[in-house]
Amino acid sequence: MKKILMVMLSIVLALTTFVGCGQKETPAPADNGGAELSGVKAIIAEAQGMTLEELAKKAIEESNGKTFYGVGNSSRGKSALPLFIEYLQTIDPSYKMEFEWQQPKNNKIFDQLTADGLKETGTFAMTLIQDGNQIESKMVQTGVLDTFIPKEWAEANGTTPEAYEGYLPLQTLNKIFEYNCVNPDKTYDNCWDFVAEGEHGLFMDIDSEIVGKNFLYMLTKDEYAAYLKDAYDKLSAEEQAYFQPTVDALEKDAAELGLGENGKYALAWIKLWVNSYNAVTDDGPICNTLVDASAVDKFGLLVYSKVRSVEETDTVSVNNIKVAAYQPGYEGIGGYAYCHYLFVTDNSPLPWTACAFIAYMTETVDGFSAWGKDLGGYSSNPVVAKETEAKFHHSEGLSAKVACETTMDKGYDWWIGDGKLVVEDPKYCASVAFTVGSWIEMLDKYTPE
Amino acid sequence: MSKSMKIRLNSIKTYLSKPQNIILILTGILVTFTTIAPIFAIIRDTFQVHPGTIDQYLSGKASGYTFANYIDLFTSRLAKTNLWTPLINTVWLAIGACTFAILFGGIFAYLITRTNMAFKKYLSSIFIFPYIMPQWTLAVVWQNLFNSNAVTGTSNGLLASLFNITMPAWWCVGLFPCIIVLGMHYAPFAYILIGGIFKNMDANLEEAATILDTPRWKIFTRVTIPMVKPAILSTILLVAGSTIGSYPVPHYLGLTTLATKYVSMNDKYTGEASIIGIIMMLFGVAIMYLNQRSLHSRKSYTTVTGKSGHISKVDLGSGRYIIAVVFVIITFFTSIYPIISFAFETFLPNPGDYSFLYTGNTNNLTTKWWVTNENVTENGMYGQMGILHNKTIWNAFRGTILVSIVCCLTAGVIGTLIGYAVSKDRHGKLASYVNSMAFLPYLMPSVAVGAAYFILFSSGKVNLFNTYTALIIVGTVKYIPFASRSSLNSMLQLSNEIEESAIIQDVPWIKRMTRIIIPIQKSSIVSGFLLPFMTCLRELSLFMLLCVQGFILSTTLDYFDEMGLYAFSSGINLILIVTILISNYAVNKITGASLDEGIGG
């Protein structure tokens, strides 16, 4: 079969290569160190030595009267830009800038940036983007995006722009297990309960939101597989008896995939999860479902911040849900965390303004406030994170809501530690995307019967 | 210059002296390029290495060409998941939707045109509403009606909330609801096409059979059905092509088809997704081939007995009201209920929160989705202004209007010219080629056409991603057939003598067109302009890969639906429906043309 295919395809390839038109070109690979920097990269190198105020002056020079285009996985960029403009106006009251912020869905941001990256001068000045795996392989290695590390951000993190390795995270977001608690008899005290017989968690489909797939990849990493093994050991003998055949059956697969000693537990959890989760288009509908009194015994894995958007009515309330990890005696992972990263496009039409905007968002409470006013999103700048908590009091719950433990955010440190969030590691994700990733794609997804 | 050369030059001169030949040459070049170029682009993409995707992993190359995509898609362990299952689902969906659309639309057309059923005018107008609305909005309405905690694992829909009725899973998600929703959406196609034949059909044939004492069922199966066979075939062609390329309905109702697979595979299996795009295109070519075969095998009929003196309609007796009421109820749920549902949704405090219906408490209603005029992130607004103040929505509305108007004008003009030129040289090879080539993009699934153009327009040389130019080009190419078919049909009805007498009078071609031909066939030609306009207004599958949300209304609507902000998507739906109804009404008043014109009496 393969040979026949090869022969047929050779002929077709020869024909299409010969007469092909409108080719989709691969962007030039990123510059390697050593070479003299030019264009946007040179500006970034210079900008990394500047304070926010110095960058702001450069931005005013560059973009006064112009239009700034940004693109991101978060819609909040649209809220942050007017604040940035206001900040620039404190330096130069005559400063004006129009802006447009786009938020593509369904992974389209990568197509959009790739297409824009082929232009001499792009449309987008910068991006706020998630999914470290694809960022590395499609955006950074191909030279579409450049990392800019703001000086004062680096200092707040005890480093320098030159010494810092990795991308610039704006924030870490958490997606956590929440469940409808209208039926008090129904509880989830172990992360294996979410994949028990008859359970169907609400979750954004892993094919439409790839950070969800990255979460599953990350579970196979030794430290998180160990979390699952520890939680498994806390199950009753009866519960273990249900899961054990699946765990045993996957021992061989785990070995073939080169996973560690607890890899079979990770694969078992992943298999049961993919076989059972009920795919939803976005976290918004998941939250809307869970807070409804009719969603008895349902649970979901969703962005924590969505509870903020619930409006209390006769049948809908945040009091109808609980955060699994907050419950006493809960064992195992509480959800997962991933980052929103900031980049300057390599053909940015307004590179100084992009750098200034990035510095503004990562170095000031106001700049981060578009995200900071929500629970479940934590600034990567420890100073900003502290000031944000002092300003918005997330640990005390949503003032506008009924006093409710669900809305009392225990903070980044708690979630990473006691909350046992599975944190996305772009490099690890990239390394297993076509091994564990292909294995996951073989699994049957759940459809209601 | 030799004699033969002179003769050849003269013959070329003579050939080019006819405007229809120049039109055929120019449009032939145009449709060849606009159809072939994207096909080559997508074929090429299947061999190209895409950084960060499976072909790079399998081939070990960062760039260049490879066969890895074909080998992996057809022979890997994932072949069943990524190719065969979606392919089979797509075929079943196309068959099911065609059958449903033909039965539903055909029976309705028969009742409207061949019987004395009551309320014809109302029913005829209301029946086409599902085609006016974006197809996936019916899918969302379906979910809002039938989802339940017990079966779909979501919060309860209206039926479960109010009456405690839970529908089985096969009813709520998967193939069945997709067939029903797409069938309902495309039933107006069947109604318009089959109804047109029923309306104009020679009643002599049926009456001759009656005189010969043929049983009624036999008349229906041996006379009526063969007469409408061409319309049924046309409906199959149009509905199958459209259904195969439909992304949003299967996406919302949980069915994996080639279109949904194309979208979901595009991030990690980019080249393999392009192969799926090609497979979808092959469906279009196959449909076109079947169309050609059916055209060649058409039969003609003649009566061998006495003639009737009048066109009679079947008397339904007291059933004329009973059947009408049944259709009033059905069309209420397919056409009126969605509009009420959209309007109601814009006043709910949380998406899908029907507290008001159980409690009667007006505190469980809100106007925030319409009137909020500040940037708030609380209470579900996510920083969006209310619909009345929402710049994103109104900018998208302007974008949609721009694309729709330009597409309708360009597709309308080009299509009309093609129709004219083809009608003048009906049996010529070039005319036949142009006619087929212009029609091909319509038979190709929308997602595949969008994907091919996305690849074509995403290069260093031609970079039109996220521009109105791209949408206008693609929309024009896709919708030329609306105008060309409409124009061709009307031109064929026009006697050549009319134009010939003007030629004898030495009237220039432009004047012949604008003063004679177009005014005579105004109604059909305007319909050819109207259809691209209306289809463009709510097109998603074709445009979704070429721009981001906020660019046009349908992508914005889809974005809000995906986010679960149903108040916004419902509001946009209302805006679209009102726009289409106003446009249809205005065009109807000005030119006398409308979508269901002439059928519903």
Task: Give a brief outline of the structure.
The complex is a heterodimer of chains A (449) and B (601). Chain A has 449 residues and is an alpha/beta fold.
| Contiguous helical run count of chain A | 19
Would you list the SSEs of chain B in sequence order as H and E?
A: HHHHHHHHHHHHHHHHHHHHHHHHHHHHH
How would you describe the shape of chain A?
globular
Number of individual domains of chain A: 2
pLDDT averaged over residues of chain A: 89
Q: Which runs of chain A of at least 5 residues are low in confidence (pLDDT < 50)? A: 15-34
Q: How much of the polypeptide of chain B forms β-strand, as a percent range?
A: under 5%
The CATH C-level class name of the largest domain in chain B: Mainly Alpha
Tertiary shape of chain B: globular
Could you describe the 3D structure shown?
The complex is a heterodimer of chains A (449) and B (601). Chain A is an alpha/beta fold and 449 residues long. In chain A, 43% of the residues lie in helices and 14% in strands. Chain A has two domains: 188 residues, Periplasmic binding protein-like II (D-Maltodextrin-Binding Protein, domain 2); 203 residues, Periplasmic binding protein-like II (D-Maltodextrin-Binding Protein, domain 2, 3-Layer(aba) Sandwich). Chain A is built from 19 helices and twelve strands. In chain A, the strands form two sheets. In chain A, strands 1, 2, 3, 4, 5, 8, 9, 10, 11 and 12 form a ten-stranded mixed β-sheet that branches. A two-stranded parallel ribbon of chain A has the order 6-7. In chain A, α4 links the parallel β1 and β2. The relative contact order of chain A is 0.17. Chain B is built from 29 helices and no strands. The longest helix of chain B is centred in the first third of the chain and has 36 residues. Chain B folds into two domains: 261 residues, Orthogonal Bundle (MetI-like fold), CATH 1.10.3720; 212 residues, Orthogonal Bundle (MetI-like fold), CATH 1.10.3720. Chain B is mainly α and 601 residues long. At the A-B interface, α1, α4, α5, α6 and β7 of A face α2, α3, α4, α9 and α16 of B.
